[in-house]
Amino acid sequence: MNLVEWFPWYDEILADFGFDRSADEESAKLLQNLLGDNGLSPTDIKIKENVVIFGAGPSLKENVLEFKQINMENFSVICADGAVTALLEENIVPEIVVTDLDGNIDDLLRSNHQGSIMVVHAHGNNMETLKKYVPKLENILGTTQSTP
Fold it and tell me: I need a labelling partner for 47 at 20 to 30 A (CA). Which of 78, 95, 114, 135 fits?
């Protein structure tokens, strides 16, 4: 990511929503400390040429059922944390789950323990959740919208 391009957008988001940049940066440092040397880097993640991404929404269950009708082995499955439950209900373990740990935590843990890589996002209001659940996860790539 080009931070020179990103930070003006980030500044607008902070202003529009009243978010606290220092809290975001504190959360990013916390996540980095929790991961230590065990965190993944983007180069550690290998995905197939074909990718399907699931997000939570009104058509999620229908789309998951449609996806099961094709040869799933040809696709890497990535999902937002809100979609992990629907995938697990259909015995689909996503390769990657992108989360700030505010979804169904039991399903996030289950998906991770079944092999999903967790892309865990640190922001100013999830520090307690990071402290509680990051130590229970493996195969984690940490992210932040603030200064890396």
Answer: 135
Tokens standing for residue 118: 């967790």
Q: Which domain holds residue 99?
A: 21-144
In a domain, 101, yes or no: yes
What tokens appear for 97 in the block? 């789950």
Q: What is the pTM of this model?
A: 0.93
Task: Return d(Cα 77, Cα 94) in angstroms, integer.
Answer: 5
pLDDT at 64 over 80: yes
Total domain count, the chain:
1
Number of neighbouring beta carbons within 10 Å of residue 121: 21
CB 27 within 8 A of CB 130: yes
Percentage of the chain exceeding pLDDT 70? 100
- Are 58 and 33 in contact by the 8 Å Cβ rule? The answer is no
